[in-house]
Design brief:
The chain is mainly α and about 110 residues long. Helices cover about 75% and strands about 0% of the residues. About 10% of the residues are buried. It comes from Pseudomonas mangrovi.
């Protein structure tokens, strides 16, 4: 159950990152000054990538434990952990793709 909570937390953070990115894309006159001590976008993105990595490692450890025959490890738990790791990786990949596309769009703007 804690893996479900971690996945939900990851998705909430991804939505928060998206909202943060959308807020930063507004003109400077409309944006609010950054709160003191608030994490930067790169820090939030780094944390999200770290959590995806942790989810993948947990999934791999669970799969290895199942393959070794460790008691208490069910195949359904292994498959659920694997799917969570896959979905979280796909989400981070999509965020990366959007960031790359935004960078390319900005670079192609006439100056």
């Amino acid at each position: 159950m804690s893996q479900g909570i971690e996945f939900n937390r990851l998705m909430l953070e991804m939505r928060s990152l998206q909202a943060d990115a959308m807020a930063r894309s507004r003109p400077v006159a409309e944006s609010k000054p950054a709160e003191p001590g608030a994490p930067s976008f790169s820090e939030l993105l780094g944390q999200a990538v770290g959590k995806v990595s942790a989810t993948q490692q947990a999934s791999n450890q669970l799969a290895t434990a199942f393959e070794m025959g460790v008691g208490g490890v069910d195949l359904s738990d292994v498959m659920i952990a694997s799917q969570k790791a896959s979905v979280s990786f796909q989400a981070v990949t999509q965020v990366r793709n959007k960031l790359v596309q935004a960078y390319q769009d900005i670079m192609q703007m006439p100056v």
